[in-house]
Amino acid sequence: MLDPFDPDSFIVRAEVHIRGIEPRITRTLELPVSLNLALLHEVLQAAFGWTDSHLHQFLIGGLTFGAPEFDEDGLFDHRTFEATETRLMDFTFSYDEDEPLHILYEYDFGDCWRHHVEMHRVPREPGVNYPRCVAGSRSGPPEDVGGTHGYADFLEIWRDPEHEEHRDTRIWAGKKFDPERFDLEATNKQIGRALRAARGGYRFRRFRSS
User: Residue 188: which CATH number?
Assistant: First the structure.
């Protein structure tokens, strides 16, 4: 029987979608409460097919979390708190499923991919390894496509064989790209690879110091 006062009795289910795109690009993730925000970043990168080629931040309750070293010159108008030091269990989750925790995950400050993350606390299933993706829809946009407006233009060209840029666009996106495709098994494999490479923190810090 689950102990309501034991954090290990629960996980966090996160319903995530990229703002400004219809039909929505979504992922449903189940996350251990011990997961820190740096690892949540790695999970989100893997789940949406991003390549961690740009800056990111989490906006939660008026505070910003991420990698503070990217603002060593103090150019941002806010303080960035260290993501590895903040775990999901550090936030307050309502027992009422109608009152989720909402956070914003922003990736690539140029293209400005804003992911709305709605989190609920739910019972842990025995014998299940977390984190995992349990559902999703559509492929994540290609990197550097130009944000939501650029992606809309990209799709129009990608789908129009008569467009003068159609062939080049298809080559640039890659033969495997399909905007309507979502592969749950492949997504979970990518999440597993990302977490193994991260080893509890940010992958880029490991590669930069090696």
Answer: 3.10.290.30
Binning the chain into helix, strand and coil, the percentages to the nearest 5 are 30, 25, 40
92 to each of 89, 95, 101, 154, 202, how far by Cα in Å?
7, 10, 8, 40, 24
Name, in order, each residue with C-beta under 8 angstroms of 141's C-beta and a sequence gap of 6 or more: 18, 21, 25, 113, 151, 154
Residues 81 and 156 in one domain: no
Same domain, 102 and 146: no
List the domain range (segments joined by +) for residue 201: 7-140+180-209
Mean pLDDT in consecutive groups of 10 residues from the start of the chain, 210 residues: 66 97 98 97 98 96 93 75 96 77 96 97 93 98 98 97 97 94 98 94 78
Sequence-ordered list of residues with C-beta below 8 angstroms from that of 90, at least 6 positions apart, any chain: none
Domain count along the chain = 2
Helix (H) or strand (E) holding 106: strand 101-107
The pLDDT, as a whole number, for residue 3 is 60
**Residues whose CB is less than 8 angstroms from the CB of residue 127 and which lie 6 or more positions away in sequence, other chains included:** none
Residues in the chain: 210
Locus of tokens 């690009």 = 25
What φ, ψ does residue 47 adopt, rounded to 5°?
Answer: -65, -35
CB count within 10 Å of CB 124 equals: 17
In this predicted structure, what is the pLDDT of residue 5?
58
pTM: 0.93
Q: Do residues 74 and 135 share a domain? A: yes
The pLDDT value given to residue 97: 67
